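In the laboratory, one determines a bound structure by crystallizing the protein with its ligand and collecting diffraction data. In a computational setting the workflow is compressed into a single prediction: the sequence and the ligand go in, and a structural description comes out. We illustrate the idea with pyridoxal-5'-phosphate.
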Amino acid sequence: MAVPLVDLKAHSQQLKQELANAVLSALESTQFINGPAVAAFEGQLAEYTESEHAVGCASGTDALYLALRSLGIGPGSEVITTPFTFVATAEAIARCGATPVFADIDSQTYNIDPENVRTAITSRTRAILPVHLFGQAADMDPLMALARLHGLSVIEDGAQSLGGKYKGRPLGGIGDAGCLSFFPSKTIGGAGDGGAVIVKDAQAAQMVRTIRDHGAVKKYYSETHGLNSRLDTVQAAYLRVKLRHLDAFIQQRNQVARWYDAALQGLPIVRPTVTEGCLHAFGYYTVQVQNRERVQQVLNQHGIGNAVYYPYSLHCQPVFGDLGYKPGDFPVSEHAQEHVLSLPMYPELTQDQVREIADALKKAV
Ligand SMILES: Cc1ncc(COP(=O)(O)O)c(C=O)c1O
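The predicted complex, in structure-token form:
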């Protein structure tokens, strides 16, 4: 039987009635922009991430831009980030007029290595932007210590990790700002695009609100360049329901990961690690294999969803060509791009399905 990479139908089925009621009530209110569900969701999110403020916006991509701008990142600033991530992470830095500076990743976690961040700091560095890739926490303690030592901001890209924890602390709520995505396949996905910025500082939170609404400090009076990046009321209503169930989803994802770990044992496949003291959100279950093309062929023949996140490190992509990097500059990231393979992962995946995926992988490797 075919197994999709993500099964949004199975996922929304169990919450169908709750979601329908929430959406219907938002629709009936006709307060489509800044309706009461938006503030309610923001409050719920701030509480969930143990933070002072949460501000909804139109996407995870915008959340990164808004967070950076609210912390004063602009032309002349350097922001250190990972080359092994979705393009939006570094794109947001460039969109602010700042310069992305890449630092290679740790081979176990695929996350930025604090030691490489340390050596990349210059007099122009203003922020560090770690990504909790695949739902696994970046090593926040040394990153925060470096930031404090050098007077830098820390912005977490938590697009893949809401629900995960680092030493008991919710991901997205540790740095000066955290950026979330509610793209439908994320750990809590909307019925469309959506995002949020988690912020500690009240002034930064106000700045996010101002920039997301055309830079306006009062009606039709703009103080700074902004954009239209609000979270729709209907989305917020839908997401409120999902957020209430997030902890259960994360437990289910961890159960699926344990089934995978057991089923893949003994095969020449590098399984994901879980950093001690951390709760992996398992947005993705990503392994490494030697002959990836052949493995993908076999999985495709069996109708098993799979994907490569990410086949090109950012420093090797034309969009960042003007930064002057070249292949070979970040060998750990480049090794990962050749070998990673993400397998089906969603809370409703069954043990039988995991066995079926493992059987196909056995044939392939
Ligand atoms: C690591 C990372 N950052 C940022 C984003 C951007 O989020 P969105 O698609 O909501 O704009 C994504 C989304 O895929 C992501 O995976």
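Residues 59-61, 85-86, 88-89, 131, 157, 159-160, 181, 183, 193, 195 surround pyridoxal-5'-phosphate (CB under 6 Å). Keep in mind that any predicted model is a hypothesis to be tested, not a measurement.
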